[in-house]
Amino acid sequence: MQRLKSRRQFQAVLAGSTLARTPHFALHTVALNADPVDLAAKPLFNVPDVWLGAMVPKRWAKRAVTRNALKRQIYAVSDLYLAQLPAAAYVVRLRSGFDRVQFLSASSQALKLAARTEMHQLLDRATRVLPGAFTQVAA
Question: Within 10 Å of residue 71's Cβ, how many Cβ atoms?
Fold first, then answer.
């Protein structure tokens, strides 16, 4: 699995289709095999592999420790689904915050368990929808 690093990569995937949603997460995807529009430009995804990025905005997770814990959970659960995901680029985006009353600690075991459970739901839904769910992206 390759990780998305550049802003252009994230923007390209977010411009693609939304594959699945849960109350807190959304999974966006875009195919890697698009025809390049500009041959002089560097390709966004130079390795035909599963590319994954995690987007946890400050708007929904104020503390850095929470954002980092959520990103670790996203990458850990995604590793379990690698065999089921075709080579494409994916972004898991936090779309709403976890309740601060229910999860008092910024990095509690309960928060991590809730995030992992919801990530399993998200990726289960995505693997059921996958065949024909891709949008082409230009390099």
Answer: 18
pLDDT tens-digit map of 48-61: 899 999 999 999 99
Q: What is the pTM of this model?
A: 0.84
Q: What is the DSSP letter of 84?
A: G
50 vs 72: CA distance, rounded Å: 17
Q: Where are the alpha helices (DSSP H) in the chain?
A: 7-14, 64-80, 109-129
Residue 97 DSSP symbol: P
pLDDT digits (tens, 9 = 90+) for 4-48: 999 999 999 999 999 999 999 999 999 886 545 555 567 788 888
Cα gap 139→134, rounded to integer Å: 15
Q: Which residue is associated with the tokens 């390049």?
A: 36
Of 31, 32, 54, nearest to 43 by C-alpha is 32
